[in-house]
Amino acid sequence: MTNIRSCCFTGHRPKALPWKRDESDVRCAALKSELRYTVEDLIVTQGYEKFISGMAQGADMICAEVVLALKNVYPHIKLECAIPNRAFTVKWALEDVRRYSSILTRADYINFISEEKSYDKYSKQDLMLRNIYMVDNSDVIIAVYKEGESGGTKNTIDYAISKNKDVIIISPE
Fold it and tell me: Is the pLDDT of residue 24 over 90?
């Protein structure tokens, strides 16, 4: 059995991205282009086959959609959606839930990290456990990260570094 090379994504939510929710912004288009180039390079030059998205609004879903677009060119690659818990989208706007659901229907694997079966119990600890899972199951991490920001993305980068994982940082600016 061969060892499948895996990559996970971490990144900011819309409020921390320069374009907020306006993905028609030229900066968002530039980010998507750089993400596509980076992921495609991992596929072509290093044999990466599996990509894990934490499925949060903002960078996570953008990264998942980049992988799904690349599946048209590289049908052997796989997308795993690592979801913190079943209540993850309970407070989201309908438009965001639709986007999330569209990605899930096209993903190769869906993994709920928390064993909690409730659809109304949301736990921030589950977000941390999801990030740990993604790093522990990846060889490299692509982080959409604005230097100097604190929060989950920075914590995930720090955890990845502590585990001697390669981290590729792409600035959203």
Answer: yes
Q: Which has the closest alpha carbon to 79: 92, 70, 87, 88?
A: 70
Q: pLDDT, tens digit, for every residue of 38-50? A: 999 999 999 999 9
Q: How far apart are CA 109 and CA 79, in angstroms?
A: 6
Please give the backbone phi and psi of residue 92, each rounded to the nearest 5 degrees, phi first: -80, 155
SS3 content of the chain, % helix, strand, coil (to 5): 40, 20, 40
Give the structural domain span for 106: 5-170
Residue in 115, 132, 148 with CA at minimum distance from that of residue 12: 148
Q: Looking at the 3D structure of the chain, how many domains does it have?
A: 1
Considering only CA atoms, give the Rg of the chain.
15
CATH code: domain of residue 107: 3.40.50.450
Please report the pLDDT score of residue 115 as a whole number: 76
Which of 22-36, 111-125, 151-165 comes out lowest in average pLDDT? 111-125
pLDDT at residue 2 is higher than 80: no
Q: Cα–Cα distance between 18 and 15 in angstroms, integer?
A: 8
What pLDDT does 119 receive?
Answer: 64
How far apart, in whole angstroms, are the C-alpha atoms of residue 156 and residue 91?
Answer: 23
